[in-house]
Amino acid sequence: MRTFLTIMLVFLIVSIPLLTSCTVSSAEYNKNLNETVEDLNDAKAVLAQAEFDSINDYNTFKVSFKFKLGENQKVLNNLKLDIDSNDKAVRAIENSEISKLEKRNATLKYKIENYELISTQKWEISKETFNNELDDLRSSISSMAVYDK
């Protein structure tokens, strides 16, 4: 019996301070709740603005990118018209190279038109990839133009 009373006494000594310290006034609770709701609303507003900025960046990039692809196509059309070799084999090779470049240009156009904007991080990576592919295509077109002259 003595052990039981000792255990109960220790239990009460430990539990009474714990129980009394766990109470939070309703005013403090409401204040914390309001602050949390405000923080959540601020975070939602920041997220909405980030999504809006990302969509605007994507749309601006898309218009610019398609314009550059159109310029590429004009250069390729001019290259086709400028082929003036008398040798049929050389003309066939040049036409084949121009056709390959046109296919690459069309593929890039298809990719940008069908790109689905999923997240900002993925867009940044895709944007860099698009730019690298476009730069590579433009350098190939420039090489072809120099070779053709």
Folded structure, characterized:
The protein is built from four helices and no strands. It is mainly α. It has one domain (38-148). This is Lipoprotein.
Question: What structural class do helix, strand and pairing data support?
Answer: mainly alpha
Unreliable spans: none
Identify the overall geometry.
Answer: rod-shaped
Query: What is the number of helices?
Result: 4
Quote the average pLDDT. Answer: 81
The amount of beta strand, in percent, is: under 5%
> How many independent structural domains?
1
Residue share in helix: over 70%
N- and C-termini, Cα separation: 109 Å
Protein name: Lipoprotein
Q: Main traits of this protein?
A:
rod-shaped; mainly alpha; 149 residues
Concise description?
With 149 residues, the chain is mainly α.
List the helices and strands and how they pair.
Blueprint: H1 2-21, H2 26-82, H3 88-113, H4 120-148
Helix pairs in contact: 2-3, 2-4, 3-4
